[in-house]
């Protein structure tokens, strides 16, 4: 296990180096001069002399390869540069908003699991019957409904009409319910269908028939033998969704004015704050890579056949 973990962590290094190269290259082709953007954000007219001075201060007047080496040097010191809009370090800005995104992501995943797990299991155990029809209808409704439309409905009925929840922003635990339900319900449909199909396939295996032939109780057969293997495909998909959620669900965070990194990235795009965009892409790439490593390790723990290989 330790050897496998070390190998995967070593494989991350070239991946992150490639991501940093691509990110730096894309920023070189974006329209607009960062020096002029910074000057306009400070209310200074971007004259030729002022622009030259700003480019020199930002280190943008040197050769491309020197700028790239300087970029890598700053990355090793967790320095993602200074935001053109706020004048604050990008790393501190991202980390100050990261807890809000983690909170929303965790509540959204919990909502998706609470919806998908019972409906997916019920659909597999009673195919063609009422639980199966209810699960498939919920899954179809989930994947067909746009997230922004559900979010607006929840705001209108839950916050405006009934006044049960805050309309926008982050004001205690009650404010996370509406955006978490919006994101969680949108993901639940995919997991319902995946759990149903995986569990139906596992229930037909010989070891499940052998467990039943031994006289084990049905809940032990389902919980200890069938469900453990049926959830492996869902675990892989869960890793992908976690990476997307940590990247900030841009639409939902914008609708609910949730102070996460997704909303921060949208504001940076409109302000053409390229330093923030560059740092955001790199931090999210690192998060996704590390989450995939964690998912692979969970596969090793849950599936003994992988360990044997």
Automatic annotation (TrEMBL):
GO terms for cellular component: plasma membrane. It is found in: Cell membrane. The keyword Mitochondrion does not apply. It is a multi-pass membrane protein. GO terms for molecular function: dipeptide transmembrane transporter activity; nickel cation transmembrane transporter activity. It holds the Pfam family BPD_transp_1. CDD domains: TM_PBP2 (cd06261). Residues 98-299 form the ABC transmembrane type-1 domain. Keywords: Cell membrane, Ion transport, Membrane, Nickel, Nickel transport, Transmembrane, Transmembrane helix, Transport. It comes from the Bacteria. The chain crosses the membrane at residues 12-30, 102-126, 138-160, 172-192, 230-256, 276-302. The complex is composed of two ATP-binding proteins (NikD and NikE), two transmembrane proteins (NikB and NikC) and a solute-binding protein (NikA). PANTHER family: DIPEPTIDE TRANSPORT SYSTEM PERMEASE PROTEIN DPPB-RELATED. Belongs to the binding-protein-dependent transport system permease family. OppBC subfamily. This is Nickel import system permease protein NikB. It comes from Paenibacillus graminis.
């Amino acid at each position: 296990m330790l050897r496998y973990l070390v190998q995967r962590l070593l494989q991350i290094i070239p991946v992150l180096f490639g991501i940093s190269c691509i990110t730096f290259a894309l920023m070189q082709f974006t329209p607009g001069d960062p020096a002029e953007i910074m000057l306009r954000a400070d209310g200074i007219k971007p004259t030729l002399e002022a622009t030259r001075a700003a480019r020199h201060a930002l280190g943008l007047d040197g050769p491309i390869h020197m700028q790239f080496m300087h970029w890598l040097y700053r990355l090793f010191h967790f320095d993602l540069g200074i935001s053109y809009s706020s004048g604050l370090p990008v790393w501190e800005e991202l980390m100050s908003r990261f807890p809000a995104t983690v909170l929303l992501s965790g509540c959204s995943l919990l909502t998706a699991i609470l919806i998908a797990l019972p409906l997916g299991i019920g659909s597999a155990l009673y195919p063609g019957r009422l639980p199966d029809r209810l699960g498939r209808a919920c899954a179809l409704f989930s994947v067909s409904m746009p997230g922004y439309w559900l979010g607006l409905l929840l705001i209108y009925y839950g916050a405006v009409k009934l006044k049960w929840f805050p309309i926008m922003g982050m004001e205690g635990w009650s404010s996370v319910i509406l955006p978490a339900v919006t994101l969680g319900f949108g993901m639940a449909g995919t997991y319902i269908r995946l759990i149903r199909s995986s569990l139906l396939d596992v229930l037909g295996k010989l070891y499940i028939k052998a467990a039943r032939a031994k006289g084990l109780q049905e809940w032990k057969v389902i919980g200890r033998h069938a469900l453990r293997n049926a959830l492996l495909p869902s675990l892989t998909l869960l890793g992908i969704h976690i990476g997307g959620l940590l990247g900030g669900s841009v639409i939902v965070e914008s609708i609910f004015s949730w102070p996460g990194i997704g909303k921060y990235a949208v504001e940076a795009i409109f302000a053409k704050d390229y330093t923030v965009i560059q740092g955001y892409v790199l931090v999210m790439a690192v998060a996704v890579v590390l989450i995939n490593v964690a998912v692979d390790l969970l596969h090793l723990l849950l599936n003994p056949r992988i360990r044997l290989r």
